[in-house]
Amino acid sequence: MAFSPIVLSHYQARPLLEARRAGQATACTSLDLNRSRCDVAFDADGVTLPDGQRIAWRIIERVAASENSCYRIGDDAEKIQTYSEATGRAYSLYPTSLAPTLLVSGLLMHRIKDTDPYHDTLAKIKAATPRGRVLDTCTGLGYTAIEAAKVADEVITIELDPAAQEIARLNPWSQALFDNPKITRIIGNSYDEVQRFDDAYFAHIIHDPPTFALAGDLYSADFYAGLYRVLRPSGRLFHYIGHLNSASGSRVARGVVERLKRVGFRQVIRRPEAFGVVAHK
Fold first, then answer.
1. Separation of first and last alpha carbons in the chain
2. What is the Cα Rg of the chain in Å?
3. In the chain, which residues fall in CATH 3.40.50.150?
4. Residue range 213-229: average pLDDT?
């Protein structure tokens, strides 16, 4: 069944144009950014969907011409983007060959080189091994919370900017963030929200902050002390950092490890396959 509303990127639009040029009358495509697939029919004016809806070729051509955007399809193609008055940041949904990622003020929020946002998320989950009650500090598109909820009892996820949730609501890959009763969403600054939880409240924490330039307070010893307090004894923290073997990633990682140990974490272990470290309480 196709996702409603219809969301397309050039990964779906270009093959339709190629099939049309090849003289095909039908094609198999996705109407929800590769979450599902269905057959569509062609005629001179456009594409007919299984439920009878139609998309004009001019709309398909517009989407195909844009490599960096995803579009909500209606009478026209509406780029999925917004601007946050709260943070002064621009948000948009950025397409990949599988799940899209979030583009925040020009910075991608998932790895896309030699991987994709979905498999990037799975690597983090494998390293974090979430169980019990889990804290996800930075929601974004909600991929981490969604995957963690598949194995954990409960996930509480915190997002700073309502604009990010606005984008997530239009992303076919993010719908479980709003539908899964095991996930509780909080809008607020993780730095402040963590202080509201009781001691030893979480069994696992997944800390996947934006870059230091966007969220330096989420790399501070004070914040790590808060995470340590709300984590139960023998609990585990996964902290995403970035490429640990790059010059910048290595530099950030050294500071992260030093501060985590300073506030009490032990056995801070590098997990380069997940671009982060795991720390135990």
1. 45
2. 21
3. 111-280
4. 93
Mapped onto helix, strand or coil, the DSSP state of residue 106 is: coil
pLDDT per residue over 17-71, tens digit each? 999 999 999 999 999 999 999 999 999 999 999 999 999 999 999 999 999 999 9
Please tell me the distance from the alpha carbon of residue 197 to that of residue 193, in angstroms, as a whole number. Answer: 7
186 C-beta neighbours (distance < 10 Å), count: 15
Say how far apart CA 261 and CA 244 lie, in whole Å: 18
Give the DSSP letter string of 2-44: --SSEEE-HHHHHHHHHHHHTT-SEEEE-SBTTS--EEEEE-S
d(CA 184, CA 139): 11
Where residue 2 falls among pLDDT bands split at 50, 70, 90? very low
Cβ(151)–Cβ(121) below 8 Å: no
| Beta bridge pairs of residue 166 | none
SS3 label, residue 270: strand
Per-residue pLDDT for 280 more than 70? yes
Of 51-55, 191-195, 208-212, 232-236, the least confident: 208-212
Q: Quick one: average pLDDT of 136-152? A: 98
Token pair 């989420």 is found at 218
Q: Long-range contacts for 221-227 (Cβ within 8 Å, ≥24 apart)?
A: 221/259, 221/262, 221/263, 222/191, 223/190, 223/191, 223/194, 224/259, 224/260, 224/262, 224/263, 224/265, 225/263, 225/264, 226/191, 226/194, 226/195, 227/135, 227/137, 227/194
Tell me the two tokens of residue 167.
Answer: 């984008």
> What is the 8-class DSSP label of residue 173?
G
Give the separation between CA 94 and CA 223, rounded to whole angstroms. 30
Kindly tell me if the per-residue pLDDT of 3 is higher than 60. Answer: no
The CATH code of domain 111-280 reads: 3.40.50.150
